[in-house]
């Protein structure tokens, strides 16, 4: 499978136009799956009132427009958006649309970060969402979620081959894309795709460095600080080699890890 990440857009532009251009460019190179950043449809640091006002249900007008883009370019899309849920709840969500425009999965961020997110969003209760894409088992997380090793390990134990992470990582947390993402891929023998924002938004400066990391912990592709489209081919053989070399999953002793389910303090 050829996978791409769109790190952008830089600046405020019509977002669906930016997505259409990125999908067209990615598809022209043979990409079958394109990942977009966290809250891609609206922006991340736009204020609580704006996020609530722009939130849509999973099958809302933007979802229909994105389904049309997916069908037009024959490409699967994973994008972040503010979800208007039932009973007045809002979620920081990521939705997977197949190449024929079908909604295949919708994941709600389970670990909220900072005052803005906790003021607007309700945390999701599912540890992840698993789907299949081009023969690979896909786990979906959002930003801060991937910084919890227990969560990524639980996805790997369920058989995930690829973990996709729309994110809005800002300074001074460069350590996450530079080190932690590679470690998560290595310790779980999975491909990991980290789709970040770039540029500035109000008082936030995003770190960029979107990356596609192999199950051996090495970069397959990495962006810099500016808007970019990066791509990599995900070879199933790389999963086999990594899991033969690195036997973390097979050597686990879950009976010793009971303390992980206890609250701290």
Number of E-type strands: 14
For the residues shown, what is the average pLDDT?
A: 96
Query: Could you give the order of strands across the largest sheet?
Result: 5-4-3-2-1-14
- The proportion of residues in beta strands is 25-35%
Structural class: alpha/beta
The termini sit apart by 45 Å
Sheet of most strands: 6 strands, mixed
What's the gyration radius in Å? 17 Å
The CATH homologous superfamily corresponds to: Carbon-nitrogen hydrolase
Segments where pLDDT lies below 50 for 5+ residues?
none
The CATH class name reads Alpha Beta
**Helix percentage:** 25-40%
Looking at CATH, which topology would you report?
Nitrilase/N-carbamoyl-D-aminoacid amidohydrolase
Quick take:
With about 260 residues, the chain is of the alpha/beta class. It is built from eight helices and 14 strands. Helices cover about 30% and strands about 25% of the residues.
Secondary-structure blueprint of this entry?
Elements: E1 2-7, H1 15-28, E2 33-35, H2 48-54, H3 61-73, E3 76-84, E4 90-97, E5 103-108, H4 114-120, E6 129-133, E7 136-140, H5 149-157, E8 162-166, H6 175-188, E9 191-195, E10 200-201, E11 204-205, E12 211-213, E13 219-222, E14 228-233, H7 236-245, H8 248-251
Structure description:
This protein is of the alpha/beta class and 265 residues long. It has a single domain, classed as Carbon-nitrogen hydrolase (Nitrilase/N-carbamoyl-D-aminoacid amidohydrolase). It is built from 8 helices and 14 strands. Strands 5-4-3-2-1-14 form a 6-stranded mixed sheet. The mean pLDDT is 96.
């Amino acid at each position: 499978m050829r996978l791409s990440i769109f790190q952008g857009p830089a600046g405020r532009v019509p977002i669906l136009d930016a997505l259409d251009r990125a999908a067209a460019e990615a598809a022209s190179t043979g990409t079958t799956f394109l990942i977009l950043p966290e809250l891609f449809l609206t922006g991340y640091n736009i204020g609580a009132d704006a996020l609530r006002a722009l939130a849509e249900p999973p099958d809302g007008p933007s979802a229909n427009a994105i389904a049309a883009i997916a069908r037009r370019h024959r490409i699967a899309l994973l994008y972040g958006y503010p979800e208007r849920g039932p009973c007045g709840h809002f979620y920081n969500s990521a939705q997977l649309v197949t190449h024929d425009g079908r909604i295949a999965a919708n994941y709600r961020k389970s670990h909220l970060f900072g005052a803005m997110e906790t003021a607007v969003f309700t945390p999701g209760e599912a540890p992840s969402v698993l789907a299949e894409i081009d023969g690979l088992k896909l786990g979906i997380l959002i930003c801060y979620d991937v910084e919890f090793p227990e969560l990524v390990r639980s996805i790997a134990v369920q058989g995930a081959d690829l973990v996709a992470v729309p994110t809005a990582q800002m300074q001074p947390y460069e350590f996450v894309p530079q080190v932690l993402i590679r470690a998560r891929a290595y310790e779980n023998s999975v491909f990991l795709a980290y789709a970040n924002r770039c540029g500035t938004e109000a008082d936030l400066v995003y770190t960029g460095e979107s990356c596609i990391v192999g199950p051996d912990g090495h970069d397959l592709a990495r962006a810099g600080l500016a808007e970019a489209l990066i791509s990599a081919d995900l070879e199933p053989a790389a999963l086999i080699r990594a899991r033969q070399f690195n036997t973390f999953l097979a050597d686990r002793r879950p009976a010793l890890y009971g303390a992980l389910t206890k609250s701290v303090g």
